Amino acid sequence: xxxxxxxxxxxxxxxxxxxxxxxxxxxxxxxxxxxxxxxxxxxxxxxxxxxxxxxxxxxxxxxxxxxxxxxxxxxxxxxxxxxxxxxxxxxxxxxxxxxxxxxxxxxxxxxxxxxxxxxxxxxxxxxxxxxxxxxxxxxxxxxxxxxxxx
Length: 150
What we know:
Layout: E1 2-7, E2 32-38, H1 41-51, H2 56-59, H3 71-74, H4 76-84, E3 87-96, E4 105-117, E5 121-131, E6 137-148
Parallel strand pairs: 1-2
Antiparallel strand pairs: 2-4, 3-6, 4-5, 5-6
């Protein structure tokens, strides 16, 4: 089972959903959820404002008019997937393989490697793999956490 969501919204656009309303069912072990996003110059500028990371490489365009996307902004893609199932991360580990620029299309796949029903919560472990439009890995990692049953 593979669920695909696409987002190309400017400047970290906010969506209003009721609390505790999962957008996607909790995946079963071995299932993946994925999400594709293209970061904009406005996204990078908004993240710089929030993070206060205004390194020159994030604020001045290269010869092609692109900005370098913050690594942690790229890492928000898997956190969006967690938000879809109301996943509370307990641990997250990322490895950044190559740079992402504004205009790059990044697809992140989170594969549930362990899912345990623990009564009032589901414990889940995910492997994370994000690739650019050329199919090259830009970020990999893992996360462990829970979804509370409400």
